[in-house]
Design a protein that fits this description.
Keywords: Cell membrane, Electron transport, Heme, Iron, Membrane, Metal-binding, Repeat, Respiratory chain, Translocase, Transmembrane, Transmembrane helix, Transport. This is Cytochrome bc1 complex cytochrome c subunit. It is a multi-pass membrane protein. The protein is mainly α. The chain has 2 domains: 101 residues, Cytochrome Bc1 Complex, Chain D, domain 2 (Orthogonal Bundle), CATH 1.10.760.10; 93 residues, Cytochrome Bc1 Complex, Chain D, domain 2 (Orthogonal Bundle). It is built from 11 helices and 2 strands, in the order ααααααααββααα. The protein has a two-stranded antiparallel sheet with strand order 1-2. Helix 4 packs across helix 9. The longest helix has 47 residues. The radius of gyration is 31 Å and the shape is elongated.
Length: 269
């Protein structure tokens, strides 16, 4: 008893007891709480993959293969990532209605929950871009002017200066970006659907993508008005000037020719 009492009075006794208590508490938490949460998350993910596989077998396997390996009618989906699924299925482009030069946007036939399940299954086939969080594509902290510069440098060649869209070769086209959700624009830049090149974070950073989306929201928003009436594709003075040269100057030349012809006829008379 005297030895035990002496140990209790030791200067380090309180520290040893505190360390033991912390170790026990941390150990119990590590054993029970995280394990339960991780197991629940793993179970939910596994269930989503299983449900997604069923949806895939019905709506996608005929073109993309039973395991996503691709066929002559559809490319491989291994490594395309969840973002590609969320974009293609969320915009109604997939499942494709019919083959053609370009699959067009149409009414979506899946709920968001089903899209998430399909995305979970495709993501399980190989690593790829994940579905972006709202923080990545909302306007907060975006630079609209910088977004305009980036859009004109990387996107305007196909989508027009304000995202009105434009024609490409062999029946393909760059669709209009008016009314497209910010999430789908972000995912398109991530994954490069159909004829569009992809712009990974090494090419356009997350901030760059946010800036571009903010620019498109600014030029295509509800409050955007064309004071001159017809926007002519948003090209500005270039298209208006071309219109003036072709039709204005052409009309003046036609009038001059008509006056000269009338004058020559009058002299002969």
């Amino acid at each position: 008893m005297k030895k035990l009492s002496a140990r209790r009075r030791h200067p380090l006794a309180a520290i040893v007891v505190l360390l033991l208590a912390l170790a026990c508490t941390g150990g119990l938490y590590a054993v029970f709480a995280p394990a339960d949460k991780a197991q629940a998350d793993e179970t939910a993910q596994s269930l989503a993959i299983d449900e997604g596989k069923k949806l895939y077998a019905v709506g996608c396997a005929s073109c993309h293969g039973t395991g996503g390996e691709g066929t002559t009618d559809g490319p491989s989906l291994v490594g395309v990532g969840a973002a590609a699924v969320d974009f293609q299925v969320g915009t109604g482009r997939m499942p494709a209605q019919q083959p053609g030069a370009q699959v067009q946007k149409k009414k979506n036939i899946y709920s968001q929950a089903e899209i998430d399940q399909l995305a979970a299954y495709i993501a399980s086939l190989g690593a790829g871009p994940s579905i972006p969080t709202e923080e990545k594509y909302r306007d907060e902290g975006a630079d609209i002017a910088k977004g305009g510069d980036l859009f004109r440098t990387n996107c305007a060649q196909c989508h027009n200066f304000t995202g009105k869209g434009g024609a490409l070769t062999h029946g393909k086209f760059a669709p209009s970006l008016e009314g497209v959700s910010a999430k789908h624009i972000y995912e398109a830049m991530q994954t490069g659907p159909q004829n569009m090149p992809s712009f990974p974070d090494t090419t356009l950073t997350e901030q760059n993508k946010k800036d571009i989306i903010a620019y498109l929201n600014a030029v295509n928003g509800d409050e955007t008005v064309d004071p001159g009436g017809l926007s002519l594709g948003g090209l500005g003075p270039v298209s208006e000037g071309l219109f003036g040269w072709i039709f204005g100057l052409g009309s003046l030349i036609a009038v001059a020719v008509w006056v000269a012809a009338r004058t020559a006829k009058a002299k002969k008379s």
